[in-house]
Specification:
The complex is a heterodimer.
Chain A lengths: L1 E6 L8 H12 L4 E6 L2 E4 L3 H6 L7 E7 L3 H13 L6
Antiparallel strand pairs in A: 1-4, 2-3, 2-4
Helix pairs in contact in A: 1-3
Chain B lengths: L5 H6 L11 E4 L13 E2 L2 H4 L11 E4 L1 H13 L3 H8 L5 E3 L7 H9 L4 E3 L4 H15 L3 E5 L1 E5 L2 E6 L6 H10 L3 E4 L2 E7 L3 E6 L7 E4 L3 E4 H5 L7 E3 L2 E7 L15 E4 L2 E10 L5 H16 L4 H28 L1
Parallel strand pairs in B: 2-3, 3-4, 4-5, 8-15, 15-17
Antiparallel strand pairs in B: 1-5, 6-10, 7-8, 7-9, 10-11, 11-14, 12-13, 16-17
Helix pairs in contact in B: 7-9
Classes of the chains: A alpha+beta, B alpha/beta.
Amino acid sequence: MVERDVTVKNRAGIHARPAALIVQTAGKFDSQILFSKDGEEINAKSIMGIITLGAGHNSVISIRAEGSDEQEAVDALSSLFDKRFEEE
Amino acid sequence: MKHFTVLDLLDLDLKEHDALDLQCIGGRPGLTREIRVPDINRPGLALTGFFDSFGDDRIQLFGRGETAFLHKLEQSGETAALQEYFGHQMPCVLFTHNLDPTARFFEMAEAAQCPVLKTHLPSSELSSRLIRALSNVFASVETIHGVLAEVFGIGVLILGDSGVGKSETALELVERGHRLVADDAVEVRCIAGNILLGQGANKALGHHMEIRGLGIINITHLFGVGAIRESKQIQLVVGLEYWDSNKEYDRIGAEERHKDILGVKVPALEIPVKPGRNIPIIIETAARNERLKKMGYYSAREFNQSVLKWLESENARSAYFHTKHEG
């Protein structure tokens, strides 16, 4: 299992477009990927789930992946956060 | 769990027979005080100066009796017990029957930054509503990846991996006149130890759904207010999974299978998905069957009973013919 904390750096937070980007990226991996914030845990392959988290600017999300490609999955997802979802 | 403060209590959106109708009349800086236990304390003994086993972590409820006693204290000018009372960090004091605190009590509450709340409800009614509201807040909660729909009055939680068709199934259920409670993230609460109540994990976002190829759609706008529901008890769990030809699926349904959610056992079914199988109709039938079971009628068992009875009579008949033939 691989776990990493990431910060939402783009101003608008995770709205529909970043959420779609996350789901697309997560969907490429076989591992089970979960996002958690404030004790709430959701499946990273579900777009409504991610939007439901309500992750605004500067909020911290912990990414957890478990499976054959867990490391690659966490790397790919955290690089999305680092690139501010290609916004701004 | 997140901290639950007095302000959160005032913000609770409760309606009709659940409404608390609270208003804050003083001690506002203390609204950030945390409520840690789902209990209420009537402070009668504490007001007389007896503080052994004083429940200072609870909401303090002042009814007619307590308020009358405050008036008596006001007249006699005694303040020692009240001083000690406000020395405790109580979450808040709450007056029922629209009663007002006495002037000195109010001043002391303000000085101690202890929130003073007021409601028009009588004490007993408020107590039961407050305990109900607080036990909901303090109930164990789990967010589950799935879809919750109400089918023929039965709360059906549809589970399964991403892409197996949970949302599409729910969409067809809605189209067939059933109701959507939550898509994708279902917040499940265990109430009173044996009831699982499910609702959308984020109320602010309303009833939306993601359908591959369509994107995000608004169920309320597309199907009307009759197609949605805010919360519903989970009475049946349906797990969708891709058809695995090596796996044995239930063919008779005489045994009850259960899924454990937050320590509560809910009847559960496993339904294999493959092209040509109409899952919404299977779920509808499962819900009808569940209603029958609740009425004490088990289709699979009754069927087996008939089979046994028929075999028995058939045996008896053949035995009869057999002996007659010999005779």
